[in-house]
Amino acid sequence: MKLITTIFLVTFSAIASAQDLAKPVRVFILAGQSNMEGAGQIKADLNRNGGQGSLEYLVKDRATARHFAPLVDSSGEWRTRDDVWISFLDRKGPLSVGFGARKDETIGPELGFGWVMGDAFDEPVLLVKCAWGGKSLAIDFRSPGAGKPPYSLGEKGDGELAANPAILGKYYREILTQTKASLAKIKDLVPGSDGRYVLAGFGWHQGWNDRISDKFNAEYETNMVHFIKDIRRDLGEPLLPFVIAETGMGGPEEAHPRALSLMKAQAAVVEHAEFKGNVAFVATRAFWRPKEQSPSGQNYHWNSNAETYYLIGEGMGEAMKQLLKIESGVPK
């Protein structure tokens, strides 16, 4: 009788473990241009401001170590999560550092976002990252609902479109292609999954290529509204939670009219009545770090500061949790 009980307990435990592995995967799409790709430096360059702003510096510096300690294990090696996975174009695997624009060298918002989502859910999480540098919402990510641009082709900023009309909306369509391809192979991307998933949310960090054009800037709010509606329609999720991270390069002291206008347009999107409670805006200007505290002086890439990119992703994750009404890791 004791043997039977033991066998029963072992069998029951095995079944329970299998059921845990087979929970529906929570899928989040992260999209945008080069700042969603990510330029946050991982390795500390001591010749550049003593390594400040790099991820290696952040996990060791007394002022930031507590915040970034979860990224390393007891031996100081970068941790790899066993509950969060990522698919980024031709790269895939469990989430760790190195899924930025340059493989194993940089991070983007995916790291902070993935850490928040992994801690929030009992189910496994998959991040589908769709990002390409130098792309505008006005042209490259333009969605069907926005129609044709309300300006003459061939003017400054849209010469590529004049030469190749097919570029209009090309990367909007590519987001759909990449996302649907990932959803079709959940079992391969998330080991132990039975293929079931919940499309849980969409994160957006983009804007530089619209910020530098008066024409693109003027229609950003309208284009963003169409983008959200079209993404939801084309993915079959009419209320898909959507988080917009501000294009806040320049920080609190930013004064350029186009920069201020674009950030204002991004914030205004969430004020549309239909987006109340299902679209969130994340202010990022406070995450700006000056070049004297960073690995580079590329202001359009947040000075390559890993703290900035991590905080942007973390902020997006916390905003997503609020949209999903998550408390103590359990959706209500």
Per-chain topology:
Blueprint: H1 2-21, E1 25-32, H2 34-37, E2 40-41, H3 55-60, H4 65-68, E3 84-88, E4 91-94, E5 106-107, H5 110-120, E6 125-131, H6 159-163, H7 170-184, H8 186-189, E7 197-205, H9 208-211, H10 214-218, H11 220-234, E8 242-245, H12 257-269, E9 279-282, H13 306-324, E10 326-327, E11 330-331
Parallel strand pairs: 1-6, 1-7, 3-6, 7-8, 8-9
Antiparallel strand pairs: 2-5, 3-4, 10-11
Helix pairs in contact: 5-13, 11-12
How does this model look, in words?
With 332 residues, this protein is of the alpha/beta class. It is built from 13 helices and eleven strands. The protein has helices spanning 2-21, 34-37, 55-60, 65-68, 110-120, 159-163, 170-184, 186-189, 208-211, 214-218, 220-234, 257-269, 306-324, and strands at residues 25-32, 40-41, 84-88, 91-94, 106-107, 125-131, 197-205, 242-245, 279-282, 326-327, 330-331. The longest helix is centred in the first third of the chain and has 20 residues, at 2-21. 45% of the residues are buried.
